[in-house]
Amino acid sequence: MSDSVLGVKVGDTAAFEKTVSDADIADFAHATGDKQQIHLSDVHAAKTRFKRRIAHGMLSAGLISAALGTKLAPDATVIYLSQSLRFLRPVYPGDTITAQLEVTKIDTERSFVTCSTECVNQDGTSVLTGEATVLLEALS
Fold first, then answer.
1. Which of 14, 51, 77, 98 is deepest in the core (most CB within 10 A)?
2. DSSP state for residue 39 in the 8-state scheme
3. What's the pLDDT tens digit per position in 60-75?
4. The model's pTM
5. Cα distance between residue 44 and residue 135, in whole Å
6. Strand, coil or helix: what is 57?
């Protein structure tokens, strides 16, 4: 019995990096409808504990999706099954976020891959952690 799914095995890693721009935040707000002012208004954000605008937490989480979907198994279809998230620190416009993942479990029978997930900023500070499970399918 193989201990991998489509060549992905326990211990494999993948990463995706992006600098979060004002346009990314505005586009995310538009796409999701989350137009909370802490993300969009400098005046409003200045009155919060963060003192400036922050990116949507799910925008950072989306970078995990990019790492899973484009870096883990680039020649496969990757279907999200679950994702847990713990938000640790804010992400500000201009921060460079790296989504990192490591395969921790393989279910070869069902083609499930479980990964520890983390996003870190340009200083190496963890901004979110979690765990993802995906289904890998071969491209036809």
1. 14
2. H
3. 999 999 999 999 999 9
4. 0.94
5. 41
6. helix
Dihedral class, residue 57 (left if φ above 0, else alpha if ψ from -120 to 50, else beta): alpha
Confidence of residue 139 (pLDDT cuts 50, 70, 90): confident
Q: Distance between CA atoms of 10 and 119, rounded to whole angstroms?
A: 20
Q: Give the CATH number, domain containing residue 81.
A: 3.10.129.10
Specify the residue for token string 């992905």: 8
Model confidence pLDDT, tens digit, residues 8-23: 999 999 999 999 999 9
Nearest-10 crossing angle of helices 57-67, 22-32: 90
Enter the tokens of residue 39.
């993300």
Distance (Å, whole) CA 9 – CA 6: 9
Length of the chain: 140
Range of the domain at 127: 4-138
